# Entry
Amino acid sequence: MQFLENFTPELTIASPGRINFIGEHTDYNMGYVLPTAIGNKITFKFQKNGSDTHCNVYSLGYEGFALDLNTISISSIEWENYVLGVLNEISKLTDKVKGFDCTIESNLPLGSGLSSSASMECGLAFGLNELFDLGLSKMAMVKLSQRAEHSYVGTQCGIMDQFASVMSKEGNVILLDCQSLEHQHIPINIHPYKIIMLNTKVSHNLASSEYNTRKQECEEGVALMKKANLAITSLRDVTREMLEVSKSEMTQTVYNRCSFIIDENKRVLEMASAFKENKLETVGEILYEAHDGISKLYEVSCPESDFLVEFSKAYPAVLGARQTGGGFGGCTLNIVHEETVEQFKKEAASAYKAKFDIELEAFEVKPSGGTSIV
Ligand code: GLA
# Structure
């Protein structure tokens, strides 16, 4: 793109991906989650270009597009919608954004369940906030990025990813209550263990449609249980006893979805306590238990993720593992003793190659800080 010839960026922003230790699909059910940002990130460079409304966005090594701030609408090219969605949401809050040029560079594997989408949205919002002095709070950027995903990308996501991308602190996980948005940073020290991500490299394309279906199934459960108890507004208000009372009225599928969310919320609080008390074996057990629910009750796993989690169980040096993120592939998160990391990575890769003929990607992540100026 032409603007690259005279590009002299005045602002650089790093926007991280995230992992979630526990609390999968609980965010849009008003429950708890336990995520943190990681070192893998998307880097944005910005310059004002002097135009009122003309903007250029270029993803390095990939492709670019130009846009006019006065005529923003949904694009048929998926990734452009992360940019357009954020600009559309910002335009509802302020008219201070003017013409800008921006390059984007990522070392966050796309579609791997590490939330490259939130990282894109939040990095852009954060950068424009700085560049044009928009005066948006961090929470405003989190929420507008989530709305951008709903309206332009079409995934009815919860708030976890955007929250983790912006609000994380190095060395900590965030215990977030997605209903009240109250949160605590919990320092974690897992030495001599490491967090090893195994990227299945599959992202089954039913992911986004099934995501919205899961949300609807949970809402169906809530609507049925509300008949017996008007005070229920989300699965957050539902106890196991309430679920059992209404069981006969719901399909087995809706029952299983609700059942998973109730257990998963409990697991978040249990794991947060286990981290505070440094009980890493408990953290590991909870991971395995959660994966079982992800696979059998919520049904958002896939053969590749199930295989890797099962594979890890043969290693006493692996405390626990589960698929992380929205589901249907992406990465499994493994807590592995440092002495066994290399052996585990190597053996997992060769077993995975033999089974699926896919080159596994294995890498360590560390709890890192949220979106920031570089
Ligand atoms: C995706 C969504 C999040 C969350 C997870 C599942 O990453 O963006 O809001 O629902 O899936 O926990």
